[in-house]
């Protein structure tokens, strides 16, 4: 993960400066899109033609959650994730496992 930070920052800097050359955008199989920055909680992203999947991230919200051990509602932060994928490449089982792993890591960031 640490080896990716430098190249990632360079790509972000070039993209924000509108200087990212087209040859640096190819070769990927997935996209992550964050429509949550616009206050949207849910969306249905569509994968780019040359890609296998896209993971959409919605805005985080505080919501009540029933805690069985406490016998009461407690506030939690929740966000919707949407995974759209090409069924010719990936089936629902694999996609579900991927989404479950992403959710697990978001709930346990110390494992990243």
Beta fraction of the residues? 25-35%
Uncertain runs: none
| Number of discrete domains | 1
The largest β sheet comes out as: 3 strands, mixed
Chain oligomer state: single chain
* Shape call: globular
Distance between the termini: 8 Å
From N to C, what is the helix and strand string?
HEEEEEH
Which architecture per CATH? 2-Layer Sandwich
Rg (C-alpha, Å): 17 Å
CATH topology: Chloramphenicol Acetyltransferase
Give the neighbour order of strands across the main sheet.
Answer: 1-2-5
Helix share, percent: 25-40%
Number of DSSP E strands: 5
* Tally of contiguous helical segments: 2
Structural class: alpha+beta
Determine the CATH superfamily: Chloramphenicol acetyltransferase-like domain
CATH first level: Alpha Beta
- What's the pLDDT, averaged over the residues? 92
Detailed description of the structure:
The protein has 112 residues and is α+β, with helices and mostly antiparallel strands. The protein has a single domain, classed as Chloramphenicol Acetyltransferase (2-Layer Sandwich), CATH 3.30.559.10. A hairpin with a 4-residue loop joins strand 3 and strand 4. The mean pLDDT is 92. Helices cover 28% and strands 26% of the residues. It contains 2 helices and 5 strands, in the order H-E-E-E-E-E-H. Strands 1-2-5 form a 3-stranded mixed sheet, covered by helices on one side.
């Amino acid at each position: 993960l640490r080896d990716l930070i430098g190249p990632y920052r360079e790509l972000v800097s070039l993209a924000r400066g509108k200087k990212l050359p087209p040859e640096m955008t190819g070769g990927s199989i997935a996209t992550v899109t964050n429509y949550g920055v616009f206050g949207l909680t849910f969306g249905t992203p569509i994968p780019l033609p040359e890609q296998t999947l896209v993971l959409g991230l919605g805005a985080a919200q505080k919501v009540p959650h029933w805690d069985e051990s406490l016998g009461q509602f407690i506030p939690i932060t929740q966000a919707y994730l949407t995974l759209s994928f090409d069924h010719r490449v990936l089936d629902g089982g694999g996609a579900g496992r991927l989404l479950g792993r992403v959710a697990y890591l978001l709930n346990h960031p110390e494992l990243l």
